UniProtKB/TrEMBL annotation:
Lineage: Bacteria, Bacillati, Bacillota, Bacilli, Bacillales
Pfam family for this entry, one: LemA
Similarity comment text for this entry: Belongs to the LemA family.
Protein name: LemA protein
InterPro entries in the cross-refs: LemA-like_dom_sf, MamQ_LemA
Organism: Salisediminibacterium beveridgei
Gene that this sequence comes from: lemA
Length: 184
């Protein structure tokens, strides 16, 4: 009789461990998805702000068509829902660079620099860029915790059985890792 009770207790402990580990993996996977959704929300916000910015700049910088065209092309690529997360972030990085070029135009056009609508849009985009950067950090932190849980004993066994897969972190491009050269 005691042997039977011990077997039931061991089975109950294993079942609770299994359920707890599985639920922990589900929770971490959902956190990864939620943190990606935060990036997506900020990218959508920027996607919505860009047409207003482009129209404002067009009125002042008629011959800067190449810069404006590049921004519009990259914005349109951001609307492609079939891109992988890594591809989405690559286009995002290119768009950030193109927006920096567009903001640099304000130095050449004093009227644009003084335009209140342009200033407001620039401020909103700057805030959005900061939120995107924060969201990327949150995503990478969440992915790191998720991947650690998948690789740790005993949840690695559950992860293998239930086909939980590692996620890739968002990485900076090689040129962003190089030392910045400053000369006076």
């Amino acid at each position: 009789m005691i042997g039977f009770i011990i077997i039931i207790v061991i089975v109950a402990i294993l079942a609770l461990t299994w359920v707890s580990g599985y639920n922990g993996l589900i929770k971490m996977r959902n956190w990864v998805e939620e943190s990606w959704a935060q990036i997506d929300v900020q990218l959508k916000r920027r996607y919505d702000l860009i047409p207003n910015l482009v129209e404002t700049v067009k009125g002042y910088a008629k011959h800067e068509e190449e810069t404006l065209t590049k921004v519009v092309e990259l914005r349109n690529q951001m609307g492609d829902s079939t891109m992988s997360r890594q591809d989405t972030m690559e286009v995002n990085d290119q768009l950030s660079g193109a927006l920096k070029s567009m903001f640099a135009l304000r130095e050449s056009y004093p009227d644009l620099k003084a335009n209140e609508n342009f200033k407001m849009l620039q401020e909103e985009l700057t805030q959005t860029e900061n939120k995107i950067a924060y969201s990327r950090q949150l995503y990478n932190n969440t992915v790191m915790k998720y991947n650690t849980k998948i690789e740790s004993i005993p949840t690695n066994i559950l992860a293998g059985i239930h086909k939980f897969e590692k996620r890739d972190m968002l990485e900076a491009k090689e040129e962003e890792r190089e030392n910045v050269r400053v000369s006076f």
